[in-house]
Specification:
Layout lengths: L12 H8 L4 H5 L7 H9 L2 E8 L2 E8 L6 E4 L2 E6 L7 H8 L2 E7 L6 E11 L2 H6 L9 E13 L2 H6 L7 H4 L5 H8 L6 H14 L3
Helix pairs in contact: 8-9
Protein name: Pyridoxamine 5'-phosphate oxidase N-terminal domain-containing protein
InterPro entries: Pyridox_Oxase_FMN-dep (IPR024029), Pyridox_Oxase_N (IPR011576), Split_barrel_FMN-bd (IPR012349)
Length: 209
Amino acid sequence: MENENPAYSIDTVEQLEALLGEIAEASRKKEVDFVHPIYQRWIEASPFAILATVGPEGLDASPRGDPEGFVAVADEKTLLLPERRGNNRADSLRNILFDPHVALLFLIPGTGETLRVNGRARITTAPEMLERFVVKGVPPRCVVVIEVDTVFFQCARAIHRSGLWQPPRTEHLEKVPSAGAMLAALTSGAVDGEAYDLALPGRQRSTLY
């Protein structure tokens, strides 16, 4: 942004702490360096997570979803995340090969709190791992093994402010461009957006796993 007054810039940890204040005691105590049994219950109930990675091109955040409990707790320091069929960009996997540090944000529909996990990941195609995550007769492409560094829950303020789990407003949905509309705009019409949207639901159903 041009013409921003540098006097208002936050450039040091000291400035940031002065702005935000002290960390609440509960916020300190909720963080542990292993998957506590109470946190395991949370992971086992979650059907959706966002996987954050870092690579040579920068940061990436990618959605992951399956039936609840799709991320398995192997032990108190290890999570197993199956990699399902996708668009083959494999941004997250490429990044893990460059830098193993990852973060997971678990969500449960209707629940305000979220669960955050930070750790280090590796990729495996061990047959016993793939067999563990077979769905409808189809194994995952690979499994991401995550060594847990920290786990803690996030309060519900962001979910409440966003109204994320509230019924969607029709006027809001009407403003959201479809996948076909976005591709048509990004390719200057080279992709037929209407045809793409018509074919998309069937293609997704047939290639879900």
